[in-house]
Amino acid sequence: MNKKIAKIACLLAMGISTSFAQGVVIDTDATTGAISKIAIDNDANNMNWVLSPDGKQYAWVTSKYGWGLGFITVNGNKLTWEKPVSTAKNLTYKAGDILITVVRTIKNGQLFEQYTFKNTGKKPANITDCGIYTPWNDNYPASATCMTNRCNAHIWAGDNAAYTCAVRMGDNGKNIEKGQGNVGLMLTKGSLPNYEVWERKSENANSNFRGVFAMDLPDMTLAPGKSYTVAWKVFEHGGTAHFYKKVVAMGGAIAKSDKYVYQKGEQVKVYLKKNNLKSLSATITGIKIKNGEVTSPAKTVKTGKDANGYYATFTADQLGEHRIDLIYNKVEKTHAEILVVSSYDNLISNRIKFILDHQQMNDTTDSRYGAYMVYDNEKQAIYKNDDNRQSYDCDEGRERVGMGVMMAKWYFKHPSESLKTSLVRYAKFIREKLQKDDYTTYSRVTKTGWNRGYNYAWVADFYFHMYEVTKDKQYAIDGYQTMQALYRYTGYKFYCIDIPVTSGLKALRDAGLMTEYNDLLIDFAHTADVFMKNGLNFPKSEVIFEQSIVAPATQFLLELYLQTKDAKYLNAAKEMLPVVENFSANQPAYRLNEIPIRHWDCYWFGKRRVFGDTFPHYWSCLNGTVYYYYALATGSEEYMNKAKEVVRNNLCNVFEDGTGSCAFVYPKRINGEQAHFADAFANDQDWALAFYLMINE
């Protein structure tokens, strides 16, 4: 070790802040040796990119969760490393017989870290569930704080090519050319095949705290005296697109496919981008879509090179998830994850049939007769929400209206009397059982409890679709009156999901209801005035700050622009667009690519009620609708392709047998318990199919 590096290592071990020119700077904790702050030098907001491990930011984020500490299971014994046994030269920790040596240096504004795990015992060490905490500051304390001092952490546990692209939530993309403003991590040695999340539970800030991340090492057995090393660098970048360019420029590898959900019979092609690539081989492995279990052994597939670079290719002849392992330069590996379905239309058709046969309440003695209901796939029966839970998130109204909207859209392309009869019965249920005479709209037939604002827009959207299905003018009137009830109830300040601008104005115009058309257009203009005045100062909603506040406002403004051609609406939407995009990145997996971050939906809408990264959740399609309307407004082919990518990837939450799942909890573990599963409730996921049909009409 040269004198300069030795001096830096000493300063780091002593808990002293270090910085060298523009780039990443850090603080370390003198007691634990962990990193307590990662910042960008000269950042006007002085943002800490990691959770503060002193219990002050969050009481449950204590010193054991400092960056670089972690946990390990050795021969069945669960251990942690929390305080160094030595800081003389480098940081060293002990977890049983495993000696962990941490070397940190900063050079040219980049942080370099190396973690070596050595078996100092006399017996082989069987290591499982070993993770290093990287507690990115991804949480929602307040909208203004999020815009400047919180990040979206886009994690890819991509084996030897793992990375995290962390983007400031309010990054506006103006620093891309300078390569500044955001922080990324890129693995340079070893493998990180999974990640997990800790401290994710309702009492810990509920839906506003994403958790404490840990990057997982592969399971292994270390013989006495043997060691395993992982190393990474942490660096500044100018946004998601710049991050990927920088990773490749620094010697990293990026996998990419033209799309990630294929129809049976299509040719799959997955590229690997890496400088100085000397060789590439590939295998595919069948994976069970609902839990990640291997369904078929790895088999070799063809590789080649074309104008776009090196690739692996095969015919999508087997349904289900497939993991494509890309072995490059003979010794390193990353992967991509793709899904093969019978066909997009067949998948949706099967879902429609299942809802008609199994999810509409057909018991005439039940007050919910005609409703589309939650379905328990484990019990193979409608979930009646009559147990101790009795959750509004599983009742007969609210998000379940998405089934009606989706099936009405399907009817436009595939009309049938059975589908129409079902929809008419559902519309009757809504009007008579969920609404009062003045169109006050409730979540359940008792017409008690929470009078939720979202109910109105969704029911109105359904009514407007029912006018298109039946050409019965009363449905257009019902839609209009429901929107009037919304505005009486919330005024113009509510950042509502799926305000029916396009469907509403079209239905009223086609029905010849021009007075109502003009009135609703005025209401929309008043709403837009509020959104434009607030700009990037987004108000809190059921979650303090989230993608489904920002994206619906942006979509609304774009739709209103398309209806009026008033440029002020387009300009306001353009200002919001980067914030929408910051919620997602381009990991090479159908559950992650262009999928915005959400991490609470299984807890509220699922059977297992687990918090944790939910990829994809159907409201991620709101990004797709933003891109779709932006493409219509500007003619951008890039954004139309992005729109289709989002909704296509969301097809994974319905299955070939017609069943569905409301949430897939993606990380390997949550709070130490096995995750990576599709929840058993078919609840509200069908909104994704509605958006797919809209964007691919």
Can you offer a commentary on this structure?
By secondary structure, the chain is an alpha+beta fold. It has three domains: 250 residues, Distorted Sandwich (Beta-galactosidase, Chain A, domain 5); 86 residues, Immunoglobulin-like, CATH 2.60.40.10; 352 residues, Glycosyltransferase (Alpha/alpha barrel). Strands 3, 4, 8, 12, 13, 14, 27 and 28 form an eight-stranded mixed β-sheet that branches. β1 and β2 form a beta hairpin. The chain is globular, with a radius of gyration of 26 Å. The N terminus is likely disordered.
CATH class of the largest domain: Mainly Alpha
Number of domains: 3
The gross shape turns out to be globular
> Helical element count?
16
| Low-pLDDT windows of residues | 1-21
Portion in helices: 25-40%
Largest sheet: 8 strands, mixed
SSE layout:
Blueprint: H1 3-13, E1 24-28, E2 35-40, E3 70-74, E4 77-81, E5 91-95, E6 98-107, E7 110-119, E8 125-133, H2 143-149, E9 151-156, E10 163-168, E11 182-189, E12 194-198, E13 212-216, E14 220-222, E15 227-237, H3 240-249, E16 254-257, E17 261-263, E18 267-273, E19 280-287, E20 294-306, E21 309-315, E22 320-328, E23 332-341, H4 344-359, E24 375-376, E25 381-382, H5 401-413, H6 417-434, H7 453-470, H8 473-490, H9 501-510, H10 514-534, H11 547-564, H12 567-581, H13 601-605, H14 621-634, H15 637-649, E26 664-665, E27 669-670, E28 673-674, E29 677-678, E30 681-682, H16 687-695
Parallel strand pairs: 12-27, 17-23
Antiparallel strand pairs: 1-2, 3-4, 3-8, 5-6, 6-7, 7-15, 8-13, 8-14, 9-10, 10-11, 11-15, 12-13, 16-18, 18-21, 19-20, 19-22, 20-21, 22-23, 24-25, 24-30, 26-29, 27-28
